[in-house]
Amino acid sequence: MVYEERNVWAGLVVSVVAMPIYVLMMLQQADGGPLTEVDWVPLMLWWIGLSIVATIVLSLAWGIVAGLREPDGAGRSDVRDRDISRMGGRVEQAFLVIAGLGVIALCAVGADVFWIAHTMFAGFAVSAVVGSIARAVAYRRGLV
């Protein structure tokens, strides 16, 4: 497994684990009340930060293990990696545009800031997961 593919998998694992935990913590803080009354900003910012740090740590740890197993190929990259990264970026962009349109629509109807922020947050999360899945599939099956 090449360097970029390990990073893709690390980001995918962290995203898939972190998002449900965030949602559960939000529901726990709401305690049956309205979600819009939850103090969501600190929780969201902490989860964004923790997810970034967790992805970096997992990627580094995985890279160290790979480097010990195959010292010459641990950080290698080629044209295929670049092409897969570009394709994944295009997939991610599509989902970010959808989330952005959702945010514009929510702003237009005067929705609560909670829903606007969480629509964008969910868009980033879905974008990361779908983009990572697209990249992982491309690494396994190739670009068509």
List keywords for this structure.
0% strand; 144 residues; mainly alpha
Structure characterization notes:
The longest helix has 30 residues, at 40-69. With 144 residues, the chain is an all-alpha fold. The mean pLDDT is 91. It has one domain (3-141). It has helices at residues 3-30, 40-69, 79-108, 113-141. α1 packs antiparallel against α2 (40-69), α1 (3-30) runs antiparallel to α4 (113-141) and α3 packs antiparallel against α4 (113-141). It contains four helices and no strands.
Q: What structural class results from the helix and strand content?
A: mainly alpha
Helix content: over 70%
Q: How large a portion of the residues is in β-strands, by DSSP E?
A: under 5%
Low-confidence parts, pLDDT < 50 over ≥5 residues?
none
The topology string of helices and strands comes to: HHHH
Question: What is the strand and helix layout of this fold?
Answer:
Layout (H helix, E strand, L loop, with lengths): L2 H28 L9 H30 L9 H30 L4 H29 L3
Describe the structure concisely:
With 144 residues, this protein is mostly helical. The chain is built from four helices and no strands. α1 packs antiparallel against α2 (40-69).
